[in-house]
Structure formats: C-alpha cells, structure tokens
Design goal:
The chain is α/β, with parallel strands linked by helices and 130 residues long. It has a 4-stranded mixed beta sheet, with helices on one face. The protein has a 4-stranded mixed beta sheet with strand order 5-8-7-6, covered by helices on one side. The chain is globular. A hairpin with a 2-residue loop joins strand 3 and strand 4. The chain contains 2 helices and 8 strands. Helices cover 16% and strands 32% of the residues.
C-alpha cells in the first residue's frame, strides 16, 4: 500500500490574479504557502485534509470533467457568506436524496465547486450500533 502524506489539486487558471482573489478573498481559503514572483506566482491554499495550488497560467479553461468538492459545516451559512462576498450561487443548498446538503458555485474559469454539508444524522457521520 502506498503511504500518502498529503494530497494536492493543481489548477492552471486563465487569469491567476482573478483566481487568487476568488479562492483567497471570496472563498476565504487560508494560504499554506506562496512561491515565485509576479502575476503567475503560485499560491497553495489549505483544503482541510489537502491543498489547492493555483499556479502558472493556461490559455484554456479546465476540462469539463474537473470538479472540486469541499465539505462545509453549514451550507446555508456558507451561502449567506459567499453571497455577501459577491460569489454567484449556481444552485442554492438542497438536501439530496442520498442525505447530503449540496450547494453549487463555480470559480472564475467555470470550474464547478460543490459545497457539501454532511448532516449530523447522516451515515457518513453516524454509525448506529457501532
């Protein structure tokens, strides 16, 4: 078995400054580290148990299959906070048939981001009888 020490998602945005403003200021992700200089410098953000690196530049938007899935404590509170920061809510929080509460937003390049709340009584958090 491979012993993974950390994980990272790497994004190459079309406009790095715009993406740093989105992830750092609007989403409020904490900076883990920065490297390089100038507008294409790299910024690595904490993502709970992993990291999101925004570095370099791409002439095209990410592949349509790229998605970010971020767990939050309260999707309704996240919606209020993000709206106040000018983030467009693609779909407001909805309790899905599988019991998770999901809200959809997108980054400046259109990368879909699902903010998900795991309710206290969901099997992912609660295992009765164990």
């Amino acid at each position: 078995m491979v012993h993974v020490l950390s994980s990272r998602i790497l994004l190459r945005p079309t406009d790095p400054e715009r993406s740093r403003a989105f992830y750092g200021e609007q989403l409020g992700l904490a900076v883990y580290r920065e490297f390089g200089t100038g507008p294409d410098r790299g910024t690595v953000y904490f993502l709970g148990g992993g990291f999101l690196e925004v570095s370099g530049r791409s002439e095209t938007s990410p592949a349509p299959a790229t998605r970010l899935w971020l767990q939050v404590a309260d999707a309704g509170a996240a919606q209020d906070e993000l709206r106040a920061k000018g983030v467009e809510i693609v779909r407001p929080p909805v309790k899905e048939p599988w019991g998770l509460v999901e809200m959809w937003i997108a980054d400046p390049d259109g990368t879909p981001i699902v903010l998900v709340e795991v309710p206290a009584d969901h099997p992912m958090r609660c295992r009765p009888g164990i």
